[in-house]
Structures are given as C-alpha cells and as structure tokens.
Amino acid sequence: MSAHFAKDQVSFATQTTMSARVPATFAPAPEGAVTKAVRAVGQWLSDKVKRRAVTNELAMLSDHELADIGLSRADIPRVFDRSFVATRSAPRA
After folding, report:
1. What CA–CA distances, in Å, run from 19 to 2, 12, 13, 78, 88?
2. How many CB atoms lie within 10 A of CB 80?
3. C-alpha to C-alpha distance for 51 and 54, rounded to whole angstroms
C-alpha cells in the first residue's frame, strides 16, 4: 500500500480555522427526561459493577480475615443493604 501524499501535505490542505458561526463558549443543553433516564441507567450499571467487584473481593477473603473486619460469610450479600450498614456502623454502648 503506497500513499500518494504525506500527512503534512494533508494538514496544509485542510481548513484549520473555525467557522464564525461557532460560538466561543457552549452553554449546556437543557437535560430532558430521556437524558436523565439514560444517565440514571448508566449510573446504576456502574454501581452494579463496583458492588460486584467488592462482593467478589470479600468472597475471596478467608473466614479469619472476614472476622477481622467484623463480617461473616453470610453477611457478604448484605454489605450494600443500607439497613444492615446502619446497624453495623451504629456506636455500641
């Protein structure tokens, strides 16, 4: 495969100046319902991946290591349950 022109020749041939119609600053577009829904689904998927990674890491720990951080193997699926976390993190009298 042989090129008939060099990369430098192409860069000189193309227009490099911006059009006068393009504003210098861009205002954010108003966020519609679809955009919010897509963003929410994306955030949910991202959170799910992170939760799975943490759950897998906890599952790889030994029972002794889990006991050191105050968990048992049965607690692993509930680590992201808000009520479980609230009861475990409440100060003990």
Report:
1. 34, 17, 16, 56, 60
2. 14
3. 5
Residue pair 75/67 in contact (Cβ under 8 Å)? The answer is no
User: Residue 13 corresponds to which tokens in the numbers above?
Assistant: 């041939």
8 A C-beta contact, residue 54 and residue 78? no
The domain locations on the chain are 31-93
Q: The pTM is what?
A: 0.55
Cβ proximity of 76 and 58 under 8 Å: yes
In this prediction, residue 25 carries a pLDDT of 67
The whole-number mean pLDDT for each consecutive block of 10 residues of the chain, a chain of 93 residues, reads 53 54 64 88 94 93 93 89 81 70
